[in-house]
């Protein structure tokens, strides 16, 4: 693996330990790795918080605590005012050596204090990747106190209380300003609760050769851009998307998906909707070919002309919706299923044709897997893989840190996007984007990956004016720019 690839690879905690063991076997001692981690944290502290003169380190019992003690020794030697709050514990040889270095540097070590000393910056070195349950006792009290104070927090490796493999937090968890991860990225840093807890992500590989790393469990999403169009291009080369939805009162969902498909480069976009909505959709966006559909025959004629179907935005779950979904699945064309199409599928599971993309949010994912939302959010990686395997379809599990999973268990994680995108219609826009990419010839996997990335980046661009009040339609202009290679 090349070094730049390594820095986008995501690992389970057990795999990270394998990498550390390989480095130690190759001649880099455990104490040396700990020293490098402490030095990396000290360098970051000086660069990010040069005004922070009083630093408090919360040190746990394992090597994460040793990393923090190394940082404390270096900061004390440089003239900062340090204090260390220690959890009572036995330490390994490397962490014991780091503790002695801190003592020799004159760092005050407070054994299990009930209250945290005042500081300009706190360093969370309590647990790292070693915790797989909720923090308890004094550690839980410290975390609550840490979260209640206004000073910034630097988390070493990952915020204490966060599960490295899943991004879930079964109890109290540190809210960090910056998370400095060591050796390799832990996959749980980028999805679920982690998105609200890690602050800014940074990685220091501690000089470990990427060749020592095993195959990663997942990847940070890095899709290739679309190639430029030929000068003799015409609309027939770029596919015909048929958006299917817009039941009574929900015309906007179908319209948003249709326009997103146009803005993302589909050559033609039609909308199959309730007859009462067709005229208004055409008036709002005349480039969309809106058709009122009330019978199977009318729908079959539209499906025959389309190259890709996007089924679900505003679809509803009545007999009309069931008829449309059944005929769409029989067509055997590449398609995307979202929203009520997923709810209908969960109520009546059936085989899907090749080239299908599913885009559930956690509630829809829970229905598709016949479980509750808590199970989905407890391990989003497992849920995404289970959906992709069960339905033999590329699956986009939406939410904070959207996951894209393939039936062969590949998973990529989107690290872009923002809370302003938690508003009505955003999922409809994503459906249109992915459908447009399918229409332009991308595989289901590549269309889902690129579509998720374009959607998230467009949301970030649109949110430059502020996250609160962001509308789904605000993404249309940046989508056009991004689809043409702009930024």
TrEMBL record:
GO terms for molecular function: ADP-dependent NAD(P)H-hydrate dehydratase activity; ATP binding; metal ion binding; NAD(P)HX epimerase activity. Binds 1 potassium ion per subunit. AMP binds at residues 398-402, 427. It comes from the Bacteria. (6S)-NADPHX binds at residues 63-67, 128-134, 157, 253, 314, 361, 428. Residues 16-214 form the YjeF N-terminal domain. GO terms for biological process: metabolite repair; nicotinamide nucleotide metabolic process. Pfam families: Carb_kinase, YjeF_N. SUPFAM superfamilies: Ribokinase-like, YjeF N-terminal domain-like. Residues 218-486 form the YjeF C-terminal domain. The keyword Endoplasmic reticulum does not apply. Keywords: ATP-binding, Isomerase, Lyase, Metal-binding, Multifunctional enzyme, NAD, NADP, Nucleotide-binding, Potassium. In the C-terminal section; belongs to the NnrD/CARKD family. Belongs to the NnrE/AIBP family. Homotetramer. This is Bifunctional NAD(P)H-hydrate repair enzyme. It comes from Metallibacterium scheffleri. The gene is nnrD.
